[in-house]
């Protein structure tokens, strides 16, 4: 039996979540911050871009037809990162994660053999995170999606230890997908907020998890980093050097930083076949998964074509195309 082609980076838009938060205290301020970080030119493009893609983001039948055209058998569907709403108070955050988890599960239920889902956790309220994860699993989702940080908290914050522990215990997937960059207005032109901001946020978040020893304490954590892990995999030698040369850099984790890349998973969405080959070299062909960022414009319309461009061996191609993800998605949750 041929291994299915599995795209682990695909999104769903949840209008009910946006209706829930509209007009609430803090929502306008969050939108203003997002606008400042992206700049007016980017916002002028984003609106029509998302609008044109709404059917693919909300209608399972349209999604499945697009998957067929791409040659994708299965998608791991996660909410649009715009639904994080890490500004929300506890009561609102509880409503957001429950609605997002339930709506994502409902979307995937239209084709359960082809659509698997991830939920959300409110990182701004660590005390709610474990319950949010458990709620996602109760809906039949495979795990949760998180950003690279929450206001005032990095992923290395001890407050998240219960979340990592529970994710490890249950076998839940954690999809690390940044939204927003704290470099703020420095990136407000030419869409630098995304092209530079996203890979920077990936690198910072993963470095926190590595250098803090979080991955030492949770070696079984199944974490998938979007965008190929950002800048970190191709510049991991600098991290290794710091760990070896400086006592402050090496104090928190037990092993060379590069060794932790082989404990993580990465999607293939790096937009450069040479970078993809390097990612596979440093992380291992068994740790890279096909990803498209469906259906946004910073993704790829032809994820298999992008994978073929890397000119991998047949075994590595098949592993990234779907073999690795098939194992990851079908492992039983305890």
Automatic annotation (TrEMBL):
Keywords: Lyase. One of its GO terms (cellular component) is cytoplasm. The keyword Ubl conjugation does not apply. One of its GO terms (molecular function) is hydrolase activity. InterPro entries: ACMSD, Amidohydro-rel, Metal_Hydrolase. One of its GO terms (biological process) is secondary metabolic process. It holds the Pfam family Amidohydro_2. SUPFAM superfamilies: Metallo-dependent hydrolases. Residues 6-329 form the Amidohydrolase-related domain. Gene3D superfamilies: Metal-dependent hydrolases. This is Amidohydrolase. It comes from Streptomyces leeuwenhoekii.
């Amino acid at each position: 039996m041929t291994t299915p082609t599995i795209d682990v980076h695909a999104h769903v838009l949840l209008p009910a979540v946006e209706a829930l938060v509209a007009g609430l205290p803090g929502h306008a301020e969050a939108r203003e911050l997002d606008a400042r970080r992206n700049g007016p030119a980017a916002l002028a493009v984003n609106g029509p871009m998302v609008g044109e893609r709404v059917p693919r983001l909300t209608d399972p039948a349209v999604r499945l037809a697009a998957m067929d055209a791409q040659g994708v058998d299965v998608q791991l569907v996660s909410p649009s990162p715009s639904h994080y709403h890490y500004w929300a108070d506890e009561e609102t955050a509880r409503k957001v994660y429950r609605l997002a988890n339930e709506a994502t599960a409902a979307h995937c239920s239209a084709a359960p053999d082809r659509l698997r889902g991830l939920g959300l956790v409110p990182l701004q309220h660590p005390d709610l995170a474990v319950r949010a994860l458990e709620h996602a699993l109760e809906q039949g989702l495979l795990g949760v999606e998180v950003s690279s940080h929450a206001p005032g908290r990095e992923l290395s914050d001890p407050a998240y230890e219960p979340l990592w522990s529970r994710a490890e215990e249950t076998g839940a997937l954690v999809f690390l997908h940044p939204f927003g960059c704290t470099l703020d207005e420095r990136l407000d032109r030419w869409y630098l907020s995304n092209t530079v901001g996203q890979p920077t946020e990936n690198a910072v978040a993963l470095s926190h998890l590595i250098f803090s020893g979080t991955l030492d304490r949770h070696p079984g954590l199944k974490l998938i980093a979007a965008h190929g892990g950002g800048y970190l995999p191709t510049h991991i030698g600098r991290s290794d050097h710091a760990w070896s040369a400086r006592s402050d850099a090496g104090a928190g984790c037990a092993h060379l930083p590069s060794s932790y890349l082989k404990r993580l998973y990465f999607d293939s969405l790096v937009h450069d076949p040479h970078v993809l080959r390097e990612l596979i070299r440093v992380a291992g062909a068994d740790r890279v998964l096909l990803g498209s960022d469906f259906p946004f414009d910073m993704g790829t319309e032809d994820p298999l074509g992008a994978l073929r461009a890397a000119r991998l061996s047949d075994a590595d191609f098949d592993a990234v195309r779907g073999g690795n993800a098939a194992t990851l998605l079908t492992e039983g949750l305890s």
